Amino acid sequence: MTWVASAVDSRYGVENLPYGVYSTPDNAVPRLGVRIGDEVLDLRRLAEAGQCANCPTCSALRAPMLNPFMALGRDVWSTVRGQVQSALTEPDMEQHLRSMLSPISTVTMHPPFMVADYVDFYSSEHHATNLGRLFRPDAEPLLPNWKHLPVGYHGRGGTVVPSGTPIVRPNGQRKTPDGDIVFGPSARLDIEAEVGFVVGVPTALGHPVSADEFRDHVFGLTLVNDWSARDIQAWEYVPLGPFLGKSFATTVSAWVTPLDALDDAEITAPEQDPEVLPYLAEKDRYGYDLRMSVKWNGTEVSRPPFADMYWTPAQQLAHMTVNGAALRTGDLYASGTVSGPAAHQRGSFLELTWGGKEPITLGDGSTRTFLEDGDTVELNATAMGTEGRLIALGEVAGTVHSH
Fold this sequence. Notes:
Elements (H helix, E strand, L loop, with lengths): L18 E6 L2 E10 L2 E4 H6 L9 H4 L5 H4 L3 H16 L4 H4 L3 E3 L4 E3 L7 E4 L3 H11 L16 E3 L5 E3 L4 E2 L2 E5 L5 E5 L3 E2 L2 E7 L14 H4 E9 L1 E2 H7 L13 E3 L4 E2 L7 E3 L17 E3 L2 E6 L2 E4 L10 H9 L10 E3 L14 H4 L7 E2 L5 E2 L7 E9 L5 E12 L2
């Protein structure tokens, strides 16, 4: 049990401890911290005070972002995590650490890491099937390659923003129902509820990473909202795929949950048929049982289950590097929209409203098909932590604004 009172019955207890970057009213310099209950522990001060005596990398803990720490590898990540857990559970440490804690309500959060590259996948069979039925009603919903490789595309790292950042409705070309080509703000602005994985340990160009090396390179995960302008996307994506309809904003949590916090959330991933090629085969094929929630202006409209994802994050990493592409510290790759088999488990509004034909009624009685200016979307998720205690992933929220 921790001596931090707000963490005793919290989903941010010592079995969680996500990392973030924050500043306080009396110290505007961004620094690393871990969330414990309703407070943030200053890792810089912890290291400088010698209270993390066995931490092998005090200099990385003094950095204003996670990248230097993430680059050091799994042994260091585990050692530091163990030291922090010990400090937060040993009663004698309270007198030394109490001044290093700040209430969450008083801090300003900053981007937790510098994004190197961003890749988005398309790994939910339910989502891909739904979109196939919407766009190709007279054909097979899945394209021939879908069960042979994790389909993905390169996004734009410079427009990955932390939770709370305003989302400006994008402009672009779109084709009207009458066939006219017009320019202006997107009229079909959507979300995609996803899970992102953050790379820590880099690789050299020309050296693929196997699926079984996933935990040697990936530091942790974050919820992701990959905002999507469906009308812009529909007109531009043939033949090269998403571009301006996706690249205007992608929101991530202010907190990165380390993989070590999710050991008890690992589950056997869905069986794959046909058999995958050897580079995608996994000795230990597992996914994560994450229970997601999508709220639209405060009304929960969906509960996507990450456990159903057909392609695992380990397979995504293997496919992303099989051609020799190098990993960089801070690379972010996302799962693609998380959707389940039931209507209330769809992770995009395109699916929930079935292409805009079935409006959603919100708690205030208003109806929506796609996002209107002023609308707020919030993503949350929980997972099983140690000793049967639920842990929470950092929320992802954004409000739509007009130009």
